[in-house]
Amino acid sequence: MKRKFKRSLTPKQKAILDFITTYTTGRGYAPSLEEIGKKYSISIPTAHQHVKALEKKGYLKKEENQPRGVSLFEQTPDSIEIPMLGLIAAGSPIEPIENPEPISIPKNLISSRGDYYALRVKGNSMIEDGICDQDIVVIKSQSVANNGETIVAITEEGATLKVFKNQNGKISLEPRNKNLSNIYPKLLEIKGKFVGLIRKSS
Q1: How would DSSP label each residue in the chain?
Q2: Which Pfam families match (predicted)?
Q3: Range with the poorest average pLDDT among 10-19, 90-99, 181-190
């Protein structure tokens, strides 16, 4: 079963997940819905709703052949969590949405140094570089860039994902879509460079 990206939890979901984790670690199997309900003074249907939410958010996985029905999704040594900060335009600039929630990504997308975050792409201006609408891009946080690097840029019009070019001091942000034009920003703040891509299968 393929793991879904993790999303933030409500306080009750976090408490139930902690209980399931402790219970499973000690006994080798998950608690029943009745035990979860008794622990938190909630009905079995309500306990079931919380468990389904934890499955949907990627913290539990359904086990068809186990009597308790679920098991924990363990974060493997080959994955790491980084914050998902919202949307980034690969089209016309848009305002960034900063509502962090963690997602798990392969460790080989990043190095051991630096700070990283993820953004979901909106638009197709980078499609010729293989970056499509709804892809998730992994960004290394930094304030400078070299010619030809794909960056997260904040301009007077908002945030956008484009290729950085500096030709004799003239800055441009170039799309990778032959139907779109370059952006020549009056104001520019570099928020990071593109280092990896995640595409969720449907």
Answers
A1: -PPPPP----HHHHHHHHHHHHHHHHHSSPPPHHHHHHHHT--HHHHHHHHHHHHHTTSEEE-TTSTT-EEE-PPPTTEEEEEEEEEEESSS-B------EEEEEEGGGS-SSS-EEEEEEESSTTGGGT--TT-EEEEE--S---TT-EEEEEETTEEEEEEEEEETTEEEEE-S-TTS--B--SSEEEEEEEEEEE----
A2: LexA_DNA_bind (PF01726), Peptidase_S24 (PF00717)
A3: 90-99
pLDDT band at 68 (very low <50, low <70, confident <90, very high): low
Active site residues per annotation:
125, 162
Q: Are residues 59 and 93 in the same domain?
A: no
Tell me the pTM.
0.60
> Sorting pLDDT into bands at 50, 70 and 90, what band is 97?
very low
Both 46 and 144 in one domain: the answer is no
